[in-house]
Amino acid sequence: ALVAPTGSSSATVPVDTKASALTPTRFAFGTSGFGTRVKGGQLPAGSDTTAFQTIGCTNSAGVERENHEAEADLGALNVSGVKSRVWTEKKGGVVSSYSRHSVANIVLGNASAGHLEISAVSSLARAYHNATGFHSKTTTHIASIVFTPSGGDAQGLEIPTPNHPITVPGLAKISLGSSIKRTRPTSAYAAADAIDIRVIPTDSRVQVAHSHAELAGGVAYGIFDGYSAGTRVDAVDNHVSSGPTPLSLMPCQGTNGEVRKKGAAHLNLADQIVVRGVDTEQYARNSAGAAEIREEGSIARINLGNGKLIVTGIVARAHAVLTPSGLKTDAKGTTIAEILVNGKRHTFPDSGVIEIPGLVRIEDSVIKRQRRGISVIALQLKLLDGTAATVNLGMARATVHRSGL
To answer: CA 73, CA 366: separation in Å to the nearest integer?
Structure first.
């Protein structure tokens, strides 16, 4: 369940309006959006998004989700009538991914200093496929902008136009939001923000009515979900941490049998671990009778403690194949070439753990079998320097399930 932002006067109410009558298609849908999102400035923690909703990786038409908030106090401004709707659809030979988001009313300022009221703001994004191929479309709407100075009468303001924002001194700068429409031979993408507000007193930015929709072809037997990465640091007690780097995410429909690679030459993790040659590799093939996915994260060399620990040839590989006979998974190819502790070569004992007192605890090949796939961490370090940080080196996850076709 979604949670209302801090300071909201009413709870967010997500609704999944359709759970049946789904139609499998050969297209991968993706759609999301929100009523408002606040970034930067002096605003309450947790006031970032209102009425967020999304549909993740699916090839089913007929999925529909809604979300709404009656009213939310975001510190410098108040929003009401926030509604979000995302849905997938097939009508005749036309398949579409939709995202629609709206805000009935936005009030910024107060009676003593003057206030600004923006009404009926909305955006719609659509990515679709018909007989002529893939297409994308966006529309936005703003009904009115009214400024009421302190002790004065309400004044209607012009709606901003592209590259021509309007500014209310000391209160806000209002610009038309961005719109992106992109089509390729195998996919379509559409995204739009209705308006963008710079709140002057708090030096913050508010995106209003953000809609995003995408559609891609290529779904056959399976739907994929997976990722690969070289490193990830999980720390506690507010010490330095970093997310998966470099991170590669598997498209819902796969890679059409192509190998995709990403790399980073050099990383320095929390000023303690020097990492060189970080790479990811992805592959997924979708045919009429089988679906196969492979994810790989690798590292050429890591150096911890100025040479106290050196590890080379770290590879994590996750592999899954789905056929009519069932799902098969393996971690073949997951390996570590060499471990040097103070210049001396070490091998893992039967316990799969090596510990260097006061420096690090090393665990080999953390593998987890899942209902639809497998996840692999080639090497996991737990630092013993008081930070209690966990460093994952070489990560891969590969999952696949039936498309329904």
So the answer is: 45
**For residues 216 and 27, is the Cβ–Cβ distance under 8 A?**
yes
pLDDT tens for each residue of 105-115: 999 987 677 88
Strand partners, 9: none
Residue 190 CA to residue 328 CA, distance in Å, equals 36
Listing DSSP states for 290-343 in one string gives: -EEEEEEEEEEEEEETTTTEEEEEEEEEEEEEEETTEEEEE-TT-EEEEEEETT
The per-residue pLDDT for 19 is 47
> Per-residue pLDDT averaged across 262-269, rounded?
79
Radius of gyration of the chain (CA): 25
Two tokens at 391?
């460093």
Rounded-to-integer distance, Cα 86 and Cα 101, Å: 8
Strand-pair partners of 318: 295
Q: Which two tokens stand for residue 305?
A: 């403690």
Q: Which residue has the tokens 């006031």?
A: 47
Peptide bond preceding 251 in cis form (omega within 30 of 0): no
pTM score above 0.85: no
